[in-house]
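Recap quiz, item 2
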Amino acid sequence: MDYTRLQLKAAEIRKKLLTMIYQVKNGHTGGSLSSVEILTVLYYSIMKIDPKNPLDPQRDRFIMSKGHSVEGLYTILADRGFFPEEELSNFYGYRSRLIGHPSVKVPGIELNTGALGHGLSCAVGMGIAAKRDSSSVHMYCVMGDGEQAEGSVWEAAMAAAHFRLGNLTAVIDQNHLQISGKTEDVMDSGCLKDKYESFGWYVKQVDGHNVQALNEMLEEDQDPDTPLLILADTIKGKGVSFMENAAEWHHRVPTEGQFKQALNEIDSHIKEIQHG
Amino acid sequence: MADTVKPEPCRKAFTRKLTELAARDRNIMVVCSDARGSVTLTDFAEKLPEQFVETGIAEQNEVGIAAGLANFGKQAFVCAPACFISTRSLEQIKIDVVYSASNVKIVGVSGGVSYGALGFSHHSLHDLAVMNTFPGMAVLLPADRLQAEAMTEWMASYKGPVYMRMGRGAVPDVYENSRDSFIFGQANTLREGDDVCIIAAGEMLSKAAAASDMLRREKINVKVLDMHTIKPIDADAIRNAARETGAVLSIEEHSQFGGLGSAVSDIIIQDTPVPMKILAIPDEIPVEGESADICSHYGLTPDGIVEEVRALLKKKAGFRAES
């Protein structure tokens, strides 16, 4: 695997999603930036998907349960060829299918999300179907750490272990921030590793911005009877200094000056990657 | 009327038919939340374990799982008491099923006040109202075992979200056979008449027919329409009935708000204004008692319906005199 390529792709996605948010003056900025590497590794390395045949029954299934971080996902789907890239400029637009949360009108989106705590249950249903059909399709579900306060997440977590879903991988984008502030202050979810392990999952922890570590973890064979949780330690607003670890950037839109500075910072990072 | 047949709850006919269909079509799957006894799915679970998913007492997860199964091309039926599935799982129904265009059939059993003295926690008197407001959601109420079978067969081949609500107790047959009991979206005329039209569905239908038969002995001719498909409602049948009879009485085991009566009155008030009465559970926590006690308290009985028809006939005479 060419990790430099994945790093560069992640940086490019950051620039594109910020451009999209800046152009339409709307969007969820911080959480989209924190999940860029997770999505990049899944969509450019791990998942078996075919943009020309988005409903291929044998495709791996991806659910963005933290639906508000849709900007990175749309950017990637367009870049992978699921729909024309020009459409990104119509994000939030009148009659645009690119609304502020994932929509099944967009090729490559499996289910509408937006209300938190739904995605994992749907992934469990897919996992049960795949298992009973003896299918090799794998299910991926990305959740937020703030989302862990939703009780339905734990109904689904219990069921995933009960049904021995070794075909299910959940990733928590653990950026420690939510709209009202620090997740541990708003509702402390405690040690998620212990919680999921006690629910019967395998849990692995990783730097959620390290594409190599993420990729290696996702490539490892999963126990056929045990769901896997990857706790990805991330930084909300990652890649732009003044957005990092700042709850107010949950859905703030950059000014012209801030936008230019953000792109400059990412460009500098791109040069660093290129020069090793 | 096949009075000799032992009355049977609709839910038993539903599960018997579903088990029969699922044995032939392995794509049919059932999701249940520790309610296989209430729904009468024990036999299905034993015969077709690979097509049965038990989620435990977790109705939110239950509906999400059904949406996931549907994403995999399964014909998913998710079954639970109507009180829980129409309330606890509402956001999953809204987003995972309706908004995501998932092919999921939602089956609520023991609806209305079926659970009687178990109390308001177990009543579902709002379910039709909420389901009616979801775009594209079909809403069905079977009146007897034969119609429940016909609806089950239809649902198994239909692609799209459906909510079917059934009661708990046994109901007398109102149909001669399953075949003639149900065409999706087309109301059935159960009794002819031109004095008043009763529009009912589900468990209320046999009571409406009984009231019509009682009144006929007094030469009062009451038409009875079976509005088994609450949504999409048969607007033509309602308009025609209003023109023919000049007065409409709707009957339902549901809140007076947002159910069958509201759907009927939407048509009446806009297209064919005639005197109308909505006989339903009023805006209060229902009186305590068994299901029959509660229905009786609110006039949801053949005798209560007869009284309402008489009152409506007076209103109709006054309405005609004024206009």
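The interface with chain A takes residues 29, 31, 50, 53, 55-56, 58, 60-61, 63-74, 76, 91-92, 95-96, 99-102 of chain B (CB under 8 Å).
The longest strand of chain B covers residues 248-255.
End of item.
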